[in-house]
Design goal:
By secondary structure, the chain is an alpha+beta fold. The protein has one domain: Tetratricopeptide repeat domain (Serine Threonine Protein Phosphatase 5, Tetratricopeptide repeat), CATH 1.25.40. The chain has seven helices and four strands; from the N terminus they run αββαααββααα. A two-stranded antiparallel sheet has the order 1-2. A hairpin with an 8-residue loop joins β3 and β4. The longest helix is centred in the middle third of the chain and has 13 residues. It is extended, with a radius of gyration of 22 Å. About 20% of the residues are buried. The N terminus is likely disordered.
């Protein structure tokens, strides 16, 4: 039981609280619509995060920040272009995380050992947008080691799972060029 507790504590991201928050601006406005009704509109606009902020949040496992850092690395947006690292981030953000940690406990008194499931939190699905970006890197030849076949495989799996942009892109590719 002590081993399981040590593993659980080490799996908790400590850096999550030390990353700086994004700068936000809040706006409110009273708007009169065509019928004469007055409505209160509240908006929060998050400014562009610095690359260091995005890198910090991506390191904590924030999948959206992994995709953003991958996009910046892929295109060289405010950071040196690194297609290999961008693909790694897209792959990590697209991979589902199971909320179960399997821990081996040795047997006691001649009994065999066993593997026990320890719930560490809810299961988290991967981000389809990350897989889509990774597929396009391969299809369009922007990956460090581009593979059209790998890109098409990822795109086909995404389109079959119901991701609309992937379905549209896959259908367009399969239809062939238009003249």
């Amino acid at each position: 039981m002590v081993a399981a507790a040590l593993i659980l504590f080490s799996a908790t991201p400590a850096a999550a609280k030390s990353c700086p928050p994004a700068e936000v601006e809040r706006f409110s406005a009273l708007i009169r619509d065509a019928d004469g009704n007055v409505r209160l509109i509240l908006a929060t606009i998050r400014g562009r995060m610095t690359t260091d902020q995005v890198r910090c949040w991506a390191a904590t496992g924030d999948r959206k920040m992994m995709v953003e850092l991958g996009r910046r690395l892929e295109h060289g947006d405010g950071i040196a272009r690194d297609a290999e690292r961008a693909e790694e981030l897209y792959k990590a953000a697209a991979t589902p995380k199971l909320g179960t940690l399997w821990v081996y406990t040795p047997g006691v008194g001649g009994q065999p050992g066993r593997v026990m499931p320890i719930r560490t939190g809810p299961d988290e699905p991967g981000l389809p947008a990350a897989a889509f970006a990774r597929a396009l890197m391969h299809i369009e030849g922007r990956a460090a080691r581009p593979s059209y076949a790998k890109g098409m495989k990822i795109l086909k799996e995404l389109s079959e799972s119901g991701h609309a942009p992937a379905r549209a892109r896959y259908d367009a590719i399969m239809a062939g060029p238009t003249t």
